[in-house]
Amino acid sequence: MKIGMGYDVHKLSDNRKLIIGGVDIPFNKGLDGHSDADVLIHAIMDSILGPMGLGDIGNLFPDTDNKYKDIDSMVLLKEVNNKLKQSQLKVANVDCVILAEKPKMSPHIKEMAQNISQVLDINQSQISIKATTTEGLGFVGREEGIAAQAVSLLFLNE
Ligand SMILES: Nc1ccn([C@@H]2O[C@H](COP(=O)(O)O)[C@@H](O)[C@H]2O)c(=O)n1
Ligand SMILES: C[C@@]1(CO)OP(=O)(O)OP(=O)(O)OC[C@H]1O
User: Fold this and answer.
1) Is 55 annotated as a binding residue?
2) pLDDT tens-place string over residues 95-137
């Protein structure tokens, strides 16, 4: 068994879509980044790459490479899953939390879990996504950005 963690933050900006867990969430702001800035998918990818010894998404998908400009992070997750399939490791479960003051994530959690389990070829029961505000405190509380954390447990498929 190997455990991995991932953490990511993106800034909230005008004139950007809010894409989290592959869901286009209606909101007056969106997350800014080189890619689509899907903060949840980025945290999940890092939590899988860590135990595989592959560093982080910045190593794999550098933001200096134009081919990743505005890329759908689900495409990057598929690439991470391809690397997982080439290894002897499989996902036991992924547990995540989204830190956002607004908007409400709860109406979108099921669709996020569907999207992620489909790309990772796992059952929906193997992925858990939660959300919390930070009670008005810090950059999340001031609605300057959204953060996500993920923990993945991988096992050796012998
Ligand atoms: N962006 C968010 C934040 C929270 N939720 C849900 O609301 C519950 C209460 O949040 P607190 O931060 O006040 O503890 C939380 O447990 C989530 O279910 C949400 O959907 N979206
Ligand atoms: C995904 C990449 C690549 O497009 O871009 P961003 O959307 O800026 O995301 P970040 O979490 O800063 O790090 C990884 C980047 O290389």
Assistant:
1) no
2) 999 999 999 999 999 999 999 999 999 999 999 999 999 999 9
pLDDT tens per residue across span 19-31: 999 999 999 999 9
Is the complex ipTM higher than 0.85? yes
Residue with CA at minimum distance from ligand 2 atom 3: 63
64 is in an annotated binding site: yes
| Whole-structure pTM value | 0.97
Closest-CA residue, ligand 1 atom 7, reads 132
Identity of residue 125? S
Q: How far apart are CA 145 and CA 37, in angstroms?
A: 11
Q: What three-state secondary structure class fits 92?
A: strand
- CATH code, 6: 3.30.1330.50
Q: Is 155 annotated as a binding residue?
A: no
Burial (CB count within 10 angstroms: exposed 0-12, middle 13-18, buried 19+), residue 135: exposed
Of the bound ligands, which one is closest to the alpha carbon of residue 100? Answer: 1
Domain count, the chain: 1
